[in-house]
UniProtKB/TrEMBL annotation:
InterPro entries: 6-PGluconate_DH-like_C_sf (IPR008927), NAD(P)-bd_dom_sf (IPR036291), UDP-Glc/GDP-Man (IPR017476), UDP-Glc/GDP-Man_DH_C (IPR014027), UDP-Glc/GDP-Man_DH_C_sf (IPR036220), UDP-Glc/GDP-Man_DH_dimer (IPR014026), UDP-Glc/GDP-Man_DH_N (IPR001732), UDPglc_DH_euk (IPR028356). This is UDP-glucose 6-dehydrogenase. Keywords: NAD, Oxidoreductase. GO terms for biological process: UDP-glucuronate biosynthetic process. Gene3D superfamilies: Cytochrome c1, transmembrane anchor, C-terminal (1.20.5.100), NAD(P)-binding Rossmann-like Domain (3.40.50.720).
Length: 474
């Protein structure tokens, strides 16, 4: 029986390995992590991440050919294929701070593989890494290994949170990069491609060289984020001219060369990857002496920051230039619907912007716990990780947080006595709310600032709300 071990039981490692275990009952899959609470979560009835469909898949395989463990060394040591799916955040200090990927976790995983191996291995880069990382890993393994042979493959993950299981079961493509010019490299590519071929049609499995695979992942995320910044840039022009972003995006997206998906204007993109991967791409371009290319991609982030600041400024300026002491309901804190993940969510910047203007914020999200909101708002952001157009906010003390921030049990409680409602995540339930009931409980004039275009503007205006919706005529 082939044994797969995945280092890192996070948003990628957990769901990806669960689906491999589901589709390959003859492969033993073990997911290991240094975080015991995370592993305990994976072994419990309440999984550590919220992802539609995940519970079912885990229930089917856990105890059969899927397990979660903190015994990292033992399972890595005798695995045939080791996936490395650890976090690769942006460096916060030293050379490349604010841009380069921090490969500390990656490097320590690679050194550990070399230390504990008791057999030859295929080592798979699942994490998103800078192009040429495989070369560094090969060096670490070659210089520290104990005579075992290692084949490095790049197999970047393209799943999106909220649709991870669907994406894994039916991916647009699976990418496997390796050293096809050597017999051992080629055999490793074929072995991994063969695992996916159990459920992914052959024409969706792409094999490339290592550097193309590594770079394709960064490029794909940059292209996706660039689409959002493009539509968000046009949304600002819509508001200035009376055009409607929904109509413009529909017309633009009808061109088959452009396509209709991923053209929803928003308060800005969030999530753990778009910003970090573009910053990483910018850094790589700078390192290779390509400043024009670097600045092209950097603009995608600038527009995203601009969009978040623009939203906050619109809220404050519409409410007579001050929100001090006014209650503002925030509906949605996760970075998108169907996830409880708040990493780099635009809600953090928007809330901090409102708090900086002394608003009292009442937050409701169906999947984000109050403690997570408090942690996110208390966290001091780095200079580079902050929209330049927003006033930098001093770190909030625990007392400020208690005075200015509340977490509500539902949308109606959040909106009770509020002057305004800001919709920051496109949860389906926000479309079906009883806005008339909400209006009755609010201060007047009652404002709605829709950062996700979920409400029907005309209907809300009929109720009496003053409505501002991204990219819609004012
Ligand atoms: P995550 O933070 O949810 O999970 C990473 C896990 O790795 C953590 O649980 C951490 O404890 C563990 N870890 C770190 N060092 C370790 C070590 N030495 N030994 C054992 N465990 C260790 O991160 P994630 O969201 O799953 O992302 C992982 C990688 O996948 C990143 O490079 C990310 O860019 C990429 N990615 C993420 C997504 C996504 O939707 N989140 C999608 C595609 C790719
Ligand atoms: C994204 C990519 O879609 C995945 O392919 C990739 O694997 C992943 O990043 C990664 O590398 O981490 P994810 O961040 O989970 O996935 O979610 P997306 O659906 O891409 O949404 C990202 C952000 O963009 C969210 O804040 C979302 O609300 C926003 N968005 C998305 C828009 O504002 N408009 C859109 O049209 C689409």
């Amino acid at each position: 029986m082939v044994k797969i071990c995945c280092i890192g039981a996070g948003y990628v490692g957990g769901p990806t390995m669960a689906v491999i275990a589901l589709k390959c009952p003859d492969i033993e899959v073990v997911v290991v992590d240094i975080s015991s609470p995370r592993i305990a979560g994976w072994n419990s009835d309440r999984l550590p991440i919220y992802e539609p469909g995940l519970d079912d898949v885990v229930k089917q395989c856990r105890g059969r050919n899927l397990s979660f463990s903190t015994e990292v060394h033992r399972h890595v040591g005798d695995a045939d294929i080791v996936f490395v799916s650890v976090n690769t955040p942006t460096k916060t200090c030293g050379l490349g701070a604010g841009k380069a990927a921090d490969l500390t976790y990656w490097e320590s995983a690679a050194r550990m593989i070399a230390d504990v191996s008791v057999s030859d291995k295929i080592v798979v880069e699942k994490s998103t890494v800078p192009v040429k990382t495989a070369e560094a890993i090969e060096k670490i393994l070659a210089h520290n290994g104990r005579g075992f042979s290692y084949q490095i493959l790049s197999n970047p993950e393209f799943l999106a949170e909220g649709t991870a299981i669907r994406d894994l079961l039916s991916p647009d493509r699976v990418l496997v990069g390796g050293r096809r010019d050597t017999a051992a490299g080629s055999a490793a590519v074929d072995l991994l491609a063969g695992v996916y071929a159990r459920w992914v049609p052959q024409d969706r499995i792409i094999t490339t060289n290592l550097w193309s695979a590594e770079l394709s992942k960064l490029a794909a995320n940059a292209f996706l984020a660039q689409r959002i910044s493009s539509v968000n840039a046009v949304s600002a022009l819509c508001e200035a001219t009376g055009a409607d972003i929904a109509e413009v995006a529909h017309s633009v997206g009808k061109d088959a060369r452009i396509g209709s998906r991923f053209l929803s204007a928003s308060v800005g993109f969030g999530g753990s990857c778009f910003q970090k991967d573009i910053l990483n791409l910018v850094y790589i371009c700078e390192c290779y002496g390509l400043p024009e290319v670097a600045s092209y991609w950097r603009e995608v982030i600038r527009i995203n920051d601009y969009q978040k600041s623009r939203f906050v400024n619109r809220v404050v300026s519409s409410m007579f230039n001050t929100v001090a002491g006014k209650k503002v309901a925030v509906l949605g804190f996760a970075f998108k619907k169907d996830t409880g993940d708040t990493r780099e969510t635009p809600a953090i910047d928007v809330c901090k912007g409102l708090l900086g203007d002394k608003a009292v914020v009442s937050i409701y999200d169906p999947q984000v716990a109050g403690e997570q909101v408090a942690r996110d708002l208390a966290m001091n952001k780095f200079d580079w990780d902050h929209p330049r157009h927003l006033q930098p906010l001093e770190q909030l003390s625990a007392t400020d947080l208690e005075k200015q921030v509340a977490v509500a049990a539902d949308a109606y409680e959040a909106a009770k006595d509020a002057h305004a409602v800001c919709i920051l995540t496109e949860w389906d339930e926000f479309r079906g709310l009883d806005y008339r009931r909400m209006f009755q409980g609010m201060q007047k004039p009652a404002f709605v600032f829709d950062g996700r275009n979920v409400v029907e503007v005309a209907k809300l205006r009929e109720i009496g709300f003053v409505v501002y919706s991204i990219g819609k005529p004012l």
